[in-house]
Amino acid sequence: LHARYVLQLLCETRRVLKEMPNITHLSTSYSKEITVCGDLHGNLDDLLLIFYKNGLPSEQNHYVFNGDFVDRGKNSMEILIILFAFLLIYPNHLHLNRGNHEDYIINLR
């Protein structure tokens, strides 16, 4: 992606995230499933494997990512771009919880 489009994606994601509440309540019933994902740590192959096995996020396919999207792996930006794009498309069906590695102070260490 051209840097201009990445910047637009980041700005729009920031706008959407600022409008969202700090706490999100989710529930399931027998007819719905939610895929809960742990730490990706910048590993794009893990994210692609999750989507391959569970399907892409959609109105029928809800996801919760429990933080630590970045660090350690070499594909942190790619992961953020993918997750932010899906968040903009499905803001009520893809949820991003911040982990300690998304904190500026933690990453300084």
UniProtKB/TrEMBL annotation:
Keyword Cell division: no
Coiled-coil portions: none
EC number, UniProt record: 3.1.3.16
Domain of life of the organism encoding this protein: Eukaryota
Primary enzyme class: hydrolase
UniProt keyword list: Hydrolase, Manganese, Metal-binding
PROSITE patterns per the UniProt record, alphabetical: SER_THR_PHOSPHATASE
SUPFAM superfamilies according to UniProt: Metallo-dependent phosphatases
Membrane-traversing stretches: none
Domain Serine/threonine specific protein phosphatases stretches: 97-102
GO molecular-function terms, A-Z: metal ion binding; protein serine/threonine phosphatase activity
Co-factor(s): Mn(2+)
Record field: catalytic activity: O-phospho-L-threonyl-[protein] + H2O = L-threonyl-[protein] + phosphate
Pfam families: Metallophos
Iron is among the record's keywords: no
Family from the record: Belongs to the PPP phosphatase family.
Protein name: Serine/threonine-protein phosphatase
Organism: Semnornis frantzii
